[in-house]
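Suppose you are handed a protein chain with no further information: no name, no annotation, nothing but its sequence. What can you learn? This example shows the usual starting point.
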Amino acid sequence: MDVIGIDIGGTFTDFVLLRDGRVRIYKTLSTPDDPARALVQGIDLLGAPVAVVHGTTVATNALLERRGAPTALITTAGFGDVLAIGRGDRPALYDLNVTRPEPLVPEAWRFELVERLRADGSVLIPLDDAELTRMVAWIAAQPVEAVAICLLHSYANPSHEVRVAAALEQAARAAGRSLFISASYRVLPEPREYERTSTTVVNAYVSPTLGRYLDRLGPALTDRGVRSLRIMASDGGSMGLVTARELAARATLSGPAGGIVGAFAVARRAGFTRIITFDMGGTSTDVALVDGTLPRTSESRVGGVPVRLPGLDIHTVGAGGGSIARVDAGGALRVGPQSAGADPGPACYGRGTLPTVTDANLLLGRLQPDYFLGGRMALDVDRARAVFAMLARDLFGAHDAAAEQRAALGVVRVANALMERAIRAISVERGDDPRDCALVAFGGAGPLHAAHLAAALGIRTVLIPRYPGVLSAFGMIAADVTRETSRALLMTLDALDPATLAAHIGTLADEARAALAADGEDPNGCRIESVLDLRYVGQSYELPTPLDQGWEASPALLADLAERFHALHERRYGHAMRNRQIEAVTLRVRAVSPRDALTFAPDDLPPRATPLAPHAVVNAALTGDTAALEPAPLYERDDLRPGDGIAGPAIIAQLDATTIVPPGWRAVVDADLNLLMTPLPPQSAPADPPA
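A reasonable first move is to predict its three-dimensional structure. Written in structure tokens, the prediction is:
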């Protein structure tokens, strides 16, 4: 296997090259003005592989920064304001100053077409061809690059959307231009008008931007001998270029999904199936709870906008290494969500002018200036002190060295509190006990904070992968190629005929296989997975309920599905209503083209001639309780061998990350060179001497 995984983050671009079973890694600062520049530089340094799997923030940033393609919307008369109205929920219940994100489509480009379908797909008001011709001709003359089509109940009957799309294409050709057309019957053929409209618009908004990026990147990779390029998708799979161009909205959580896939792969190999993933990068922290399988969801939010497409259930907070610290109007210390990013970056990188979490870790000695990025990038301690002197003056009215250290410790504590709250949101608030999980820490900054977070949450096992700083890129190599299709059912479960269900699954499976074939995959070698979204009649939200392989042979299919749904509902919400009728809302079919299991050549580790010893002794504040610097041993991770144990306080440095082992904790190296950190048993008090 000759493949490279590339994850472009807000601060660093990460590379993992797997060639002949050997792994090489590389990190470089991202180039926000042109993300492809850092990518190509890394490939030139490592040597071009046959295949590239790429996690990209192009679609995400286009959505977050509102830099997507100018987009128009065609919808049913009376529904032009659905994007502006949205839902009636309040993301912050007691915030009196809530402002909704501006719709991606301005009011002047939201067009209402006189037509109407009933909920069963029958025509109530026919589509007026003359009006349609006038509308699409006017749109084709506007400075828009993309058009989203979302007509009422088109999931039940797409005929009107098909006619609108064809008319748009004809009008664009007549005007001598091209338009990207995103039709809801292809993007999301499911009920819920707001979510369906939002997702269709998001896809129209980001697809031209990602398409242009791929147009620039493709020739550069081809010139270097790369024969295959796949893009990481939000659902933990990857997709070929045909799908990436057509459904760019699938890539809105591209990078974080790779991290969860990589973390789960490493954890399973180490013997852990119930884990909390903790991915702390330069801009944000992403957490997820994995209980035996990847935590899939059918909806996520990016920049406050719902994207109802398959994804992994990821919770994100704006706390990363580059998160900026400040004092608010009330005198409280705040960290993030604003980030220094890659340009200018933290102050210690040499260009930043504001204090960040990375600067705080440097002042506390947790990052050592001569060991960052394997010694390839020296950190500027004096510049970090200068920005923290200003923060200390705002906090304490003093800016001496002691105040700077206290301010640095405060920044780290606030960041830890934000990340602890995020982990509680995906565990405690959903009825799961984080103490039953292992914490898998990765990202460039994750291992710096992992043990202190674990202690606060009562977690007793922390797994630091061998290459934590590039684990998302590793997960991209391991990701299968996937495509999901869906169909609205909207019927009670007892009315669902197994033969009809089998026919629907067959049709959707054929569509998914055809999509994989268009991406260059062998459709005959893929695996088909089916899920029914079920709910009690009268509920507003569903629970995905999987169909087992061989379900067709089950004589009690509907009873088995009902019991499985009751059990899922009880686990999620604490109760089940077994006397309540169940409704089948949506059928989902997922085609998976599996990647070969990753195989690694044995590590050629020379035997250690002398006992393990620290590479240096440095001054650092590792307890989390005090900012006072105390001597601590520093080890280089490349020196570690399976079975080695290190008791805290200690620092373990490597090219892609730095791991902190606080006092009272111990790190042991396993057979795959992962670090397993566990708290030491409390020491009993010494007995009183005899009288």
